[in-house]
Amino acid sequence: MRGTDDSLEREVAEPRAPTVAASENVAVAVGLKLLGAGAVLILIGLILVLSLLSPYFLSPRNLGNILAQTAVICVVAMGQHLVILTKGIDLSVGSNLALASVLGALSFHAGASALTVVAVMVAAGTTVGAVNGLFYVYGRLPHPFIITLATLSIAKGIALQLADGRAIPGMPPAIRSLGQEAFAGLPGSVFVVAGVAALMFVLTQSTVWGRWMYAVGGRADAAVRMGIPVSAVLVSAYVISGTCAGIGAVLLAGRTDAGSPLFGNLLELDTIAAVIIGGASFLGGRGHIGHALIGAIMIGVIRNALNLLNVGVFYQLIVIGVVIVAAVEADVLRNHLESRMRVLRAEAGP
Amino acid sequence: MTQHQLAAHPQHPVLCVRGACKRFGSVVALDDVSIDVHRGEILALLGDNGAGKSTLIKCISGVHRLDAGDVVIDGAANVLRSPADARSAGIETVYQDLALFDNLTPAQNFFAGREIAGPKWLPRAMRLLNKRRMDEQTRSLIQSLNVSLPHLDAVVALMSGGQRQAIAVARSAVFARKVVILDEPTAALGLCESRKVLDLIGALRDRGNAIILITHNMDHVTELAGRAVVLRQGRRVGELVPTRANKQELVSMIVGA
């Protein structure tokens, strides 16, 4: 039955001027390309407009400022991107970063060396990430929202308790200079971001594990049937997200010369926003490390610009919220165009 | 047809299921079912909805485990704990829902879970993908199976139903060494697209695989299958060499009239 219907449709469709279908095909293809490059184009446009509006914007010092301020969001957003790639969400990154910074500060005051302090912070972040992943997968929780919401609260509580609700000043000089000083004209944190990005790029694009991440994010039940170790892949995404929060703690503690339970407030929103604004799909399976970086830098640029232009700090929240809605709508539009493309190709025949 | 094939393959069957039993709670899905398939043969597995066809193939492809009975592959009894076990035993399955990754390209779909990567001393997950070799093998396979995929570098989400079906069948061809199971491979396809998939199934058989085909289309059964086994309410109720002449007999066997 269906077969006859299909071939009838095709017969009807073919006489209809083929140029119409062809031009629509081109339009849809161009639309998809534009959406794919959308975030980069908007970022470039934003930078051009801002350099006209404020002469200070493009000065090396201001650019350095943007990069230093964005470094934490960049690193943590790269971890968040992995989690979102698997259709998940990690709400705990901000509290995780705060807890890691407090543990780092405490270990410094207990006499630990710079290297040990870094190790403590990264290990603390990784541990919280592992708790998230293990409980989500092996605790058979219906959605990662729940466990990461729980660890958001728990890590925050532990951090506040340990630090007695206050910031703990003091970081080893090496960590401080990483967060505050410039090397070859660039803030030290930029090198950390670049290093993490390079490593993540190779892991996600060139290794078997990276391919599994995309497969699991695309369709977990099919991944099981293809023999991919889905549980381990899912856990690894949360572990790495935690590690990134730990690295973020090192950068932020270095910049402020302190560990604090109040660090990372709303960082989960900033990082999720960065990944989505950058153009990764919230539906999982699509996106790459560049999306997280571009989105994070876009958030940094918007904040910086609104500061330079003397727009109140409260408006920043509103602007970023609007940008998130626009980015998700762009994702919806992309899915729509893709199904349109599928129909056009099916009509054109193989 | 059967006589001819038995003569061509006088050796023991490549896959035997012996006395398969499977219950889900109080429902008996399979009750002492036995089948066997030879290399280069297409066995049609027929039955009404709920007859136990899907349960049987899920047990062969490692999704379910049998409560009792054996799956014997090349004369050796195997315990299939997972789909990965079945795949490494040489059994490939084309699922009714295709189990394709919409966000990946055809080549990435073909090799999902079986990526070509090295070096060998690294743990499997950390090995570097050999993308060029996987692309080459995909291209030559698609050529040899005569599948037309105009946009090989596009993700599967952008492909038509027939192309997606062809990709799923071709994926099984990459790794099939013994048995290919196809669950309703033409159910969602138009006439032309069905034709292409049927040709593809014939090509898989000609490569020496044993094929188990589940379908409701009797024309496809009489055209392709060397034998047909009929299940009803979890029991094996008969076997026939399907021809145009005994199509009616097959149908009444299926519905139990």
TrEMBL record, chain A:
A GO term from the CC aspect: plasma membrane
UniProt keyword terms in alphabetical order: Cell membrane, Membrane, Transmembrane, Transmembrane helix
Any one GO molecular function term: transmembrane transporter activity
Broad class of the protein's primary localization: membrane
Membrane topology: Multi-pass membrane protein
Transmembrane segments: 34-54, 66-86, 93-112, 118-138, 145-163, 183-203, 224-250, 312-333
CDD domains xrefs: TM_PBP1_transp_AraH_like
Lineage top rank: taxon: Bacteria
InterPro entries: ABC_transp_permease (IPR001851)
Subcellular location: Cell membrane
UniProt-recorded name of the protein: Monosaccharide ABC transporter membrane protein (CUT2 family)
Organism: Phyllobacterium bourgognense
Taxon lineage: Bacteria, Pseudomonadati, Pseudomonadota, Alphaproteobacteria, Hyphomicrobiales
TrEMBL record, chain B:
InterPro entries cross-referenced by the UniProt entry: AAA+_ATPase, ABC_carbohydrate_import_ATPase, ABC_transporter-like_ATP-bd, ABC_transporter-like_CS, P-loop_NTPase
UniProt key word Nucleotide-binding: yes
Key words of the record: ATP-binding, Nucleotide-binding
Residues in ABC transporter domain copies: 15-253
Alphabetical list of PROSITE patterns matching this protein: ABC_TRANSPORTER_1 (PS00211), ABC_TRANSPORTER_2 (PS50893)
GO molecular function: ATP binding; ATP hydrolysis activity
Nucleotide-binding listed as a keyword: yes
Family the entry assigns: Belongs to the ABC transporter superfamily.
PANTHER family for this protein: CARBOHYDRATE TRANSPORT ATP-BINDING PROTEIN MG119-RELATED, SUGAR ABC TRANSPORTER ATP-BINDING PROTEIN
Name the UniProt record assigns to this protein: ABC transporter family protein
Top-level taxonomy: Bacteria, Pseudomonadati, Pseudomonadota, Alphaproteobacteria, Hyphomicrobiales
